[in-house]
Every structure is written in structure tokens, then in C-alpha cells.
Amino acid sequence: MMVQLEWYLILAAALFCVGLYGVLVRRNAVAILMGIELMLNAVNINLLAFWRFTEPAAATGQAFAAFVYAVAAAEVAVGLALIVAIYRNRQTVDMDQINLLKW
Amino acid sequence: MTVHDLLPILTALIPLPTFIAFALIILFFNKWKRVSHSIAIGAMLLAFLMAQVVFWSVIAPDGHELAEHPLHVQIPWLPSGAEALEMGVLIDPLGAFVLFFVSITCLCIFVYSVGYMSEGGKHYDPRYSRFFAYISLFATGMLGLTVADNLLMLFIFWEIMGLCSYLLIGFWWEKNYPDPKQVNPRQAGLKAFMTTRVGDVIMLLGIAYLYSATGTLSFRELLSAETLGILKEMPSYIPGLSAAALAGLLLFGGTVGKSAQFPLHVWLPDAMEGPTPVSAMIHAATMVSAGVYMAVRMFPLLQVGFDIHHGAQLTTPMIVMALIGTFSAFMAATIAVAQDDIKRVLAYSTISQLAYMVAALGIGAYVAAAFHLIAHAFFKALLFLGSGSIIVGSHHEQDMMKMGGLFKRMPVTAITFIVGGLSLSGFPLFFAGFWSKDEILAVAYHAGFNEGIVLAVVVYVFLALGALLTAFYTGRQICLTFLGQPRSDHAAHAHEVSWTVYVPLIALALFAVFFGYIGIPEVFPLLGGEHSNLFHHFVGATLGTETLHQLPHPEQLDLLPFVLSFLISPLGLLAGYLVYGRKPLQAGQPDPLVKALGPLYPVLKNKYYVDELYDAVFIQPAIKLAKWVYKWVDRWFIDGILHNVARGAFGLGHLNRRFDLAVINGGVDRMTDGIKWLAQNGRQVLQTGQVQHYLLQVLFFLCGFGVLYVWGDAILAFIQRLLGI
Amino acid sequence: MGTFDTSQLLAILPQILLVVLALIVLAADLGTPRGKKRSLGIVTAVGLLIVLIVTLAWPETTEPVFGGALRVDGVGKAFQAIFLLSGLLVALISMDFRPLRQDGAYYAMLLFSVLGMSLMAAAEDLVMLYVAIEIAGISAYVLVGYMREDALSAEAGVKYLLFGAFSSTVMVYGLSLLYGIAGGTGYGRVAAVLLQTPFQLAMVAFLLVLVGFGFKVAMVPMHFWGPDTYQGAPTPITAFISVASKAAGFAVLARALHFLFPALNNDWPALLVAISMVTITLGNLLAVPQRNIKRMLAYSSIAQAGYVLIGITAGGVAGITAVIFYLLVYAVTNIGAFSIVSMVASHIDSDDIQDYAALSRRSPALALAMMVALLSLAGVPPSGGFVGKLFLFAAGIKAGLVPLVVVAVLNVIVALYYYLNVVKVMYTVRSEHEEDAIAVPAPSRLVLVLSVTGVLLLGILAAPCYNVMSNWVTGWFS
């Protein structure tokens, strides 16, 4: 018996929420980035599940997922670079303290 | 593209060079005086050449061709809905001639300014560059106004000129006079601005009214037969006036202000406070023509309903124009008789001559008005520049009583000035002023005595009397200035200024003589012929639509006005000579007129006390009202309330303080801290600087939107049930 | 998938040229000695000018090209021109922004960002859309945090990245749902499926996608990053993201509303009207108490985005044309304003409005240009900003959005206050540094001249530009 599409979608939604929770409550900038990665993984589960269940003949969903991976990697690279820069300046990666710019 | 397609584009570019010159001088070249005047003159020369190319390309013996197919180009300027507001340029026979004289006079002013503002290169004015920037902007305004093809554009350039005139009259703003009653440049600028503004507001009302009535402001559409027909039938807010008449009256308000007609004429004599001859000439010879130009341009609207062939009466706007024109012409001429300041005489003479044109329009003679407009611009410009030359040459002496004997010391100025004066007084045959003034008088006589329009009789009589006075004060001016012996040191050491000053004089003198020959009436003995009245054939075609019923031109010579025209000017000049020239005044000797006129003299000298009247009726009450409002409404009422509230609060504070000290010192402190904390955090609750707060808010809104979308209707229904609706 | 066809490549020649240009800049960087890297800005600007000309000259395509991923139609071209022009001007002002270290990577990143945006303007496929947004976005994150040693720049970069990554992730989740619904990623296919069978999920997906677009546009509630990022970023980059990035957001929003979500035509206008009202009001109100000019301009740009939303919501030829016209005016105006901020900051190391005191005496030309820019932002005639607002409001009224336009007009008055405040400081407040003139390097001078003449010309000769743009837009509606 095959697992139904709905289950995949629910899994993805749950994963998305877990990632979202991480983004919102973790203070460490690196952890926030990890939360975003989790959300992107949820997107990929969605894409692949949809591909499998709607039109497995075309590779669109797979290609989309591949692009999402690539983008995620790029984002993380730039993100980490910026976090390193801020750590050099401020000796912290705690996003609660990174609030020179406000109001 | 043929040459004829390029001409409209060339026309559109005419106002541009001077505007660029203005920007360049103001922004970059303020510090370099010679560079500034070179830029300004170069730009004006370019504009002049473009204007002349346009003029000579369109000029023809018969204007009907151009009138029906004028140079016209327009671009959509502001798309507003389906219709676009269009801006464009239009050159018809009238516009061509106005462009012709405007470009010439403006170029003369520019060249002349070099000599005048630097006193022949010896002493540069501290704000020399700025002066050239202003007159460049002024030229932009005048040229733009001439080529405008719609009322809105005309009004924009009209206001640009108003601004320049304000800036130029007050150009020497730091100047003060010991006599507090004498108007200083600052006040004069303000006075000119405010007075003309009264006219402008009325004119703007007219424009708005026309737009709401017809939906267009383009001259061609506005003055087309069908639009005029609609306006003629349309009732206005005022019973008994058609929409055309009301709009015409309102627009004429602008003319009254700009062309200094009674009762808004008071600004012009004071405008002579500007850098003496140059801005005076701008105000008196060029800019004021704009008012009359607009009236000529809109003449088909002003005369809607007037049909001489079917016995209709003059229209309301025409009656108003005839009355105001006649009155101003005569009144200003009488005042001019008793002025001693060389420029003020010319200023009043300008009011008077402009009034001739207005009166001519009032009895339907618009070609004569246009002809006199241009002729007047030439000889009046000449006279003003001449007076400027005299003033600089005689070391800033403006009082004619202290001049005399300048003929020998400033021969070029003297000869050109006398040419201008003879032209102004309408000396027969040889001078432009004769032909143009003669045409107005001839038409007025014809309308009054042959066609039986009573008003025209009045117009004729007073204009003829005015002409006599004109000749008299011109004779007086010439005799006082040039004949006899110098009556002051300044006059004794007078000399010609420089070539930049007298070359424009000579150029203008040529026009003041020869311009008249293109408008010799057909019926004139010997000189007249079938094609002698070129101006009439050309310009007369401009407005010659089927709707325009101008007075038929006299078909045969009327003997009486013909003879009178020949006599009036020499008689007046002779009178002037007899009083002032035969036995030249000696230094310190009073004006013989004082005795001759008796009690009338102070009245004339004080310009019929109109300024004093306005002061008493408008200005003082306004100041009193302002003071009253300040004292009672502001100080007593509003401040009183505030003071009492403050006093109450103060008392309360005292009470509070005692209470505070005694009872809850610590508690209150803590409360204010709390409020401060709340205010700070409340104000800053949105933009905390913490990125996760931002994200949370996004999420919150997102969920809110989602909930509203999915359950929005249910929520609404629930709330309605809860409220029992 | 058809066979490979070179005409498909030719269709994206301008984009290919951008990549080539970026590579040239990177290569030139290697051969340029350390002190001379400033000249790379010239290379970038000239290159962008060439690409701009090619883009405008390239034929429009009415059918999707490049495997159905792009449609380079009139609207797309108009937006691409705006991005390229912004990139050009920003490259010029970057050359003399002192706090920034000059190197090839900076200009290359700028070019990549422009590349991403120009793909965004033409994207007609979900995958293409996502990739284009990320190309534009990630390069912009790098640019914002480019002054690594500066705590503010680094902070702005991190915040911009986290906010951007978050919202684009939310968006791509929405895109994945759309893919699932339609079983394909082309706009046409998704729209057709949605029109056939209405899904509740479609609106959820729309909201998720709107988060991503709203982030680019900086509309409430996705505006929070704006002020912080604008203030911290290198000033030329602030100009770039406030203009180009915003315009790119509007490009994808307009196209998505028209080609992707026609099924929701009854649902989104109310939402956008509400967002537009709040965006205009919030932006203007919060701009009033600002003391830092970059931050003030940031809030002002949020408000400007709100005005543009009126045109987006109104739709139709009039609405979209007004959007393009306004964005062009806004690009010229805002880059002009920021170029002055950049020059002043290079000279006196301050962005405080107080320090603009007596600018009219220090550098009259700068003060004048700033005044023109501010008055155009405020919408005073005869500037382009005035005409642009007029078009937007007219389109709004024609579409029946009268309350929205009333709110916008009231806000224009509020806005006048804080713009004129800067003018007042520049012209009336005296300062002890009046003798110290601010240097205006040649490239910046060029930008200033272009900006001022552009603002005035677009205001005075609005109709011809409007007509050209309107012709481009009609392709969407015929």
C-alpha cells in the first residue's frame, strides 16, 4: 500500500512549523538560519510529493527541488559570512543584542 | 519635412534660449558679470533671430492665408482621463507682428542694459548678473506669452512676467528716501505685485469660468464660431449677461491690472523705482502691452453679439472697455502735464496711450488697437531708453526742473528722444504715432458721427482732447529737458554714456518713424492707395471669422477728423513751446503752470489723490482690521483664554505640588516613570530593532489575513448576532 | 520540452550580456592595481548603458520564450530598463562613496542583482520566479553587508538576510502549493487550473506568495526590514534596494496578479487596498520623527510603495502605466537624493539631518538638487513626482478606489512636512562649517545632472513618456 499524498503534506506542514518555531524563538543567528533550512526542507517534501502524485513523467518538481537546494546553500553561505562579520564586530551572535538599528 | 513644418517647432523654441540663460546665470555664472551679460545677450539674439525668421517667413500682403492656417503645433501635456491637456504654440498674423516687436524691443533692452547697469562700463552694479538673469526670465515670459496657443499657457507666462516685474521694481531694495511719503523700491515692487494681482485673480476666474463653460482653453477652439455661438446663448450667473459677456468682463480684469488702466493704474508710476529706464521700459513699453494683447486676442469673445449691420448695441464688455479706456486716457494725460520727474511723465503717458487702445477695442476697432499697440511699443521704448540715457548722462538727475540745455551735451539722445516725442504726440505724416493714433480717432469719429453710436462720440471727443494734452506735455518735456540753459551742475556736466546705450536708441528711432508707413489708410489723400494699409490687410485677417463684426472701415475720408489730426499735435506742441521753450526757465523758477492752473495744479500734481483715496479706503482699514483682530481676537480672546488656563493650571500645580509633597511623593514619581516607560515602548513597539519581532509580526498579520479570508463571513455574522443586528 | 533552439538563447541576450559583463568586471579586477579599482565603476556603468540600449532595442516577444520560463513583453522591458538605469546610476555614485572599499566583487554583485531583477520582470514560471528572486536577493544581502568592518552595515546585512530568507521561504512554500494544485509551473497552466476549479487553498498560497513579493516591495507588514537595512547599508546600495529592488517587487506582483491569479480577481483587491492605506499612512507617520536622513528616506520609500500599490490595485492599462511611470520617476528622484546623502556622508561622516544645516551655503548645487528631489518625492509640480502621483490617483479613481485615493492625498500633505523640514534645514539653519564646500566628483555630478533633468523633464514632458509606456502596457490587455 502506498502512503497517501495527504500524509506527505501534513509532514511537510509540520516540519515547516517546526522550522518556523525555531526561526522565531532561537536567539542564536546560526540557529535561526537552521530553522529556515528546515522550512526549506518542508518545501522540498511538498514539491517531491506533488511531483510523485501529480505528474511523475515530467521532472519539473524534481528540478524545482534541486533549485531550492542550491538556493538554500547559497543563502546559508552568505548568511554565515554575515554572521561571522557581525561576530567580529560585536563578539556576539545573539539576535536579541543585535539591535543598534531600530525605531 | 518641409520648411513649413519646421517653422512651428522653431516657434516653440523661441522662449527657450532666454530661459536657459536665466538658469545658467542664476546657477553658475553669478560671479562673472561680463560672462553673464554675454550669455543673456547671446540668448536674446538667438531668440531674436528665430523670431525674425518666423516673422519674415509668414508675412504676406494678405493675412487670410495665415489666419486660416496659422503656424500651430501642440503636444498633449498632461493626460487626464481620455482628454489630454494640450500645450502648444500658435502664430497667426497678430501673433507674428507682436513677436516682431517684442523680439526687437527685448533685444534693445538687453543691449542697452549693458551700458545702463554698468554706467557705460565704469561702475558695475553689485547685482549686475542677477539683473541679466531677471530680464532673461522676463523675455522668456513675454516671448512665451506671445506664442502661447491657449489661455492657460498665456496665464502662466503672464505670471512669470508679474514675478519678474516684482523682482525688477524692487531690484534696489536697500534704497530708502528721507521723505517717508516717497515710495521706495521695496514698497513699489510690492504695490505693483499686489495691484496687478487683483487683476490677475479676476482674470483667473474668467479662465476658470471659460473652461467650465466650454471645456477648452485653446484660442482656436475657444474663438471658433460655434463655441462663441454657444457662449452667446448661454446665460451666466448674473441676470442679463451672457456667459460670453461675463467671461469677457472677467478676462478684461486682467488687462486692467496688467495694462494699468483705471482703477488699477496706481502701480505703474511707482514702478519707475526699478533700475531706472530698463525696468521702467519693461513695465511701460513691453509688459503692459501684454494686457492689451490679451484683450485683442480675445476680442471675438468680447464682441460676441455686436453686429453693426443689424443695429445691435455695443456689448457690455465693449461698453466697459470704452468707458474705462476713455477715462484713463484723459485722466492720465492731465496728470502727466503736472509731473516733474522725467520718467513719471512717461509712465502716465503710457497709461494714457494704452487707454487709447482699450478705448479703440471698446468701439470695435481692434486692428487700430493692435496697430497703435505696436507703434506705441516702439516709440515709448525709445522714450524710456532716452530718458534713461539722460538720467545716467546727467548723473542720476530725474527732475526735469533741474535739467535743460542737454541738446548740445547729448545730441544723439536728444535727437532720438525728440523723434520719439513727436511720434508720441502724433506729429503728422512723418511719425508712426500719427498713423496709429489717427486710425483710432478716424474710426471713433466714423462710429460716432456716421454710424450714430453715442458712446463713440464721447470716445472721440475725449481722445482728441487727450491727444492735445499729449502733445502739450511732450512739448513741455522736450523744452524743459533739452532747451535753454542747464539748471543744475549735474545737467551742466552731462555727456553721452556709451555706444551700448545709444545704438538701441537709434534702432528704435527708425522704427518710431517708419513703422507707421505700413498702416496708411486707403482713403488717405495722395499717400493712400489700394494696398497702402498693409497692416490692416494682414492683421485684420486674424480675427476675421464670420462671427466678427468689426466696424466697417471709413470708406471715404471724413474731413473734420482729418483736419483735426493735422492740427492737434502741432497745436499742442506749439503750446508747450510757447510756455516752456520761448523763454526757457531759469534755475529755481517755478513752473508757469502752477499759476496758470491755479487750484487745479495740486490736484493734478497729486494724481487726483487716488493713492490717498486707496490708502484711506483699502489700506488703512485693512491695517486697522488686522490690528483690531490682533488686539482683540488674538491678544484678548485667544491669549486671554490661554493665559487664564495657564494661570489655572499653575494654581492647580501649586496645589498639586503641596499635595504631592505631603502625600504621595514617591507614588507619583513611580507613575510618571511608568508612563514614560509605556510611551517609549509603545512608540517603539513596532520597530524594535530585533528581527525576530519583525518576523513574528509578519506571521501574526499573515494568520490574521488567512483567518479573515477563510472565516471572515462567519466572523461577521457572529458579531452581528452578538450585537443583535 | 522542445529541441534546443538558438533563438531561445537570443531572446535572453541582454541577460547573457549582464553575466558576461559581470565576468569582465571580475576579470578586470584581477588586473587592476589596488588604488585604481574605482575605475571598475566606469566599466560597470558603460556596460550597463550598452545592455540598456540592447534591451530597449531588442524585439518584444508576446509568447513565452526560453522553455516557457520568460516573456519579454513591453512591461517586462520597461521594468528592465528601470533596473538597468538604477544599476548604472548606483555604480556611478558607488565610485566615490568613501567608506566603501572598491573592488570587482562589489560591482559584480551589483550586476548579478540587476540580472536577477531583469529575470524577475519577465518570469512566467514558478521556478524561474523563485530563482530570479533569489539571484536578486542574495546578491543584495551581500551588498548590504559589504562594509564588513562597520557594525551597522553587518547588522543591516544579517537582518536583511534573515528577513529575506524567511519571506522567500514562506513564498516558495506557497509556490509549492500552487505547483501541487496545477501539476505544472507555468503561469498560464496554473492560472487555467485555478480558473477551472476554485480551490480554497489558492488564496492561502496567494497570501504566502504575497509575503515574498511584499518583502521586495517593503509594504506593510513586510516593511520592517526597510528602515534598519536602509540605515545600515552603504548609501549607494540603500539607493539601489530602495529603487530597483522595490520596482522588481512591483514587476513580479503586477505580472502575478495579471497572469497567475486571475482566478482571485474578486479577492485580492480589498486586501491590497487595506495594505496600501496602512502602508502609506504608517510610512509617512513614522518618517516624521526621524533624525537620520537615510532612515527618514526609508520610511518615505515605504510610503511611496503604498502609492504605487494604488496603481497595482487599480490595474488596467492606466494603472500599470501609472505604476511604471511612477517607478521611473521614483528611480531618478530617489537615486538623486541618495547620491547627495552619499556625497555628504563621504565628506562629513554623518547622516543626521541636523548636519545638513546651511548646505545651501556650503554647496548650493547640492542643496538645489536635493530640494528638487525632495519636492518631487513630495509631489510638488512641476516635478515628475507630481505628475506620477497624478497618474496613480487618476487610475485609482477610475477604478473606483476613491477612499484609498483620499487617504493617499491626505498623506501627501503629511509627507510635505518632513520633506520640507530637510529643505528648511538646508536653506535656513546656519552652521559653522559654511566655508567647507562638499566635493562633488565627476561621476556623481553626472548622476545629479541626470537626476535633476530627469525629474523636471518627466514632469514637464510627461505625456510623450506616458504614451510610450502606455503602448508597452497595452500588450497585456489586448
Q: What is the gyration radius of chain C calculated from CA atoms?
A: 21 Å
What is the beta-strand fraction of chain B? under 5%
Count of discrete alpha- or pi-helical segments spanning 4 or more residues of chain B: 29
The number of helical elements of chain C comes to 20
Task: Domain count of chain C, please report it.
Answer: 2
Topology order of chain C in helix (H) and strand (E) letters: HHHHHHHHHHHHHHHHHHHH
Give an account of the 3D structure:
The complex is a heterotrimer of chains A (103), B (725) and C (478). Helices cover 76% and strands 0% of the residues of chain A. Chain A has 3 helices and no strands. In chain A, α2 runs antiparallel to α3. Chain A has a single domain, classed as Orthogonal Bundle (Helix Hairpins). Chain B folds into 3 domains: 3-605, no CATH class; 606-685, no CATH class; 688-725. Chain B contains 29 helices and 2 strands. In chain B, β1 (71-80) and β2 (83-91) form a beta hairpin. Chain B is globular. Chain C has 478 residues and is an all-alpha fold. Helix content of chain C is 77%, strand content 0%. In chain C, α2 runs antiparallel to α3 and α13 (293-314) runs antiparallel to α18 (402-428). The two termini of chain C are 28 Å apart. Chains in contact: A-B, A-C, B-C. Chain B binds chain C through residues 27, 75-81, 84, 686-687, 689, 691, 693-695, 697-698, 700-702, 705-706, 709-710, and chain C through 158-159, 162-163, 166-167, 170, 200, 203-204, 207-208, 211, 221-222, 224-225, 227-228, 267, 271, 286, 364-365, 368, 387, 390-391, 394, 398, 461-464, 466-467.
Descriptors:
heterotrimer, A: 103 residues, mainly alpha, Helix Hairpins, 0% strand, B: 725 residues, 3 domains, two-stranded antiparallel sheet, 2 strands, 71% helix, globular
What is the element layout, followed by pairings?
The complex is a heterotrimer of chains A (about 100), B (about 725) and C (about 475).
Chain A: H1 5-25, H2 29-54, H3 60-90
Helix pairs in contact in A: 1-2, 2-3
Chain B: H1 3-13, H2 16-27, H3 33-58, H4 64-68, E1 71-80, E2 83-91, H5 93-117, H6 128-147, H7 151-169, H8 185-214, H9 219-222, H10 225-233, H11 243-258, H12 267-270, H13 276-297, H14 299-302, H15 316-337, H16 342-362, H17 366-393, H18 406-409, H19 411-425, H20 432-450, H21 454-482, H22 489-492, H23 499-514, H24 534-539, H25 559-581, H26 592-597, H27 600-605, H28 610-683, H29 691-723
Antiparallel strand pairs in B: 1-2
Chain C: H1 6-11, H2 13-31, H3 40-57, H4 74-94, H5 104-122, H6 126-144, H7 151-182, H8 187-196, H9 200-217, H10 225-232, H11 235-260, H12 268-287, H13 293-314, H14 316-348, H15 359-362, H16 364-378, H17 384-398, H18 402-428, H19 442-460, H20 462-477
